[in-house]
Amino acid sequence: MLRILMGLLFLGAMPATAETSLLNVSYDVTREFYKDYNPAFTAHWKSKTGEAVTVSQSHGGSSKQARAVLDGLQADVVTMNQANDIDLLAERGKLLPLDWARRFPYGSAPFTSTTVFLVRRGNPKNIRDWNDLVRPGVAAIIPNPKLSGNGRYSYLAAWGYVIRKGGDERAAQDFVGRLFRNVPVLDGGGRAASTTFVQRGIGDALLTFENEAFLTQKELGEDKFDVVYPSTSILAESPVSVVDKVADKRGTRALATAYLEYLYSDEGQEIAARHYFRPRNESILARHRDRFRALDLFTIDEIFGGWKQAQSRHFNDGALFDQIYGVR
Predict the structure, then answer these.
(1) How large is the average pLDDT for residues 57-74?
(2) How many CB atoms lie within 10 A of CB 143?
């Protein structure tokens, strides 16, 4: 009997298999990055602790992914492209603290990107800046801002372009309305929009994150597409968080925290740079200056007063995007 009890105590002290796995719920143009990052992290964790880890991924439009977690998808960590999607999990789902952005450096955003244009080789429509996208006969491909952070950044970048040029809110709304009248289809996420532009051959310009534009060009050949940088664009930050309620239930908090911390390591930042995300580490950014040109970027806070205000005014049901797109 004593031997049986000792055996049960031993089994109870052993880590559960759930402790050796993580689910990272992310947005849809990070697939290739995490395909490289996950093995680097698991090797690091194995070397440090002796524990083998399996990291699973889920990808889709950022806001769709946040809603999936809110509806019960058991994410240990979320790695999104906008803070309001993580705020949703804190405010409505009570899945993590309201001050989640203070946990890691740079507002818990380990790298950044921006919105650029991918055009067909030779730029046959001579698209150089935002104003070229509203010309008659130009078709712009943008994912749905209601579902996709990629699309939301494109919308806000166009709006901010008008404000930075001295226009007022009415002029910005008119400009964005003209832009979306030139959008033939609204895909559910950035990768779906890339497929529409690249594989289906629809549109003259794809508005997407810098990393997605260069990845597309690299994979399909520089002889097929060019990347165009507009005169001004938006700073796109990629925030991350542990999902406390899930991680605590599964016993993965320490592992989940380490997984996100490693994004800030030299190796994590190098992998980000190789995938055309702009690293926060200045020395690593400088090492890759050949692929990251200096840009005139504005922030969500600067033009829109932060993500909460931008969401409420532009993207909630019945807000400005619905009004603009509803009168196409």
Answers:
(1) 93
(2) 33
Q: Report the C-alpha gap between 190 and 213 in whole angstroms.
A: 10
Q: Is 137 helix (H, G, I), strand (E, B) or coil?
A: coil
Q: How big is the chain, counted in residues?
A: 328
How big, in percent rounded to 5, are the helix, strand and coil portions of the chain? 50, 15, 35
Q: Which residue has the higher pLDDT, 90 or 61?
A: 90
Is the per-residue pLDDT at 298 higher than 50?
yes
The end-to-end CA distance of the chain, in Å, is 77
Query: Are the CB atoms for 27 and 59 separated by under 8 Å?
Result: yes
**297: number of Cβ within 10 Å:** 16
Residues 6 or more apart whose CB falls under 8 angstroms from that of 163 comprise 169, 172, 303
What is d(CA 175, CA 117) in angstroms, rounded to the nearest whole number?
A: 17
Token reading at 295: 């840009």
Structural domains in the chain, sorted by start: 2-110+238-287 (3.40.190.10), 112-235+296-325 (3.40.190.10)
74: which 2 tokens?
């058991």
Phi, psi of 15 (to 5 degrees): -65, 140
Paired sense of beta strands 205-209 and 297-298, if any: unpaired
Task: Say how far apart CA 309 and CA 75 lie, in whole Å.
Answer: 27
Q: Are β-strands 233-237 and 297-298 bridged in parallel, bridged antiparallel, or unpaired?
A: parallel
Angle subtended at Cα 316 by Cα 309 and Cα 144, rounded to the nearest 5 degrees: 110
Nearest Cα residue to 162 out of 185, 130, 187? 130
Per the structure block, which two tokens stand in for 221? 């050949």
% of the chain residues with pLDDT over 70: 94
Residue in 259, 311, 237 with CA at minimum distance from that of residue 81:
237
Q: Is 227 exposed, middle or buried (0-12, 13-18, 19+ CB in 10 A)?
A: middle
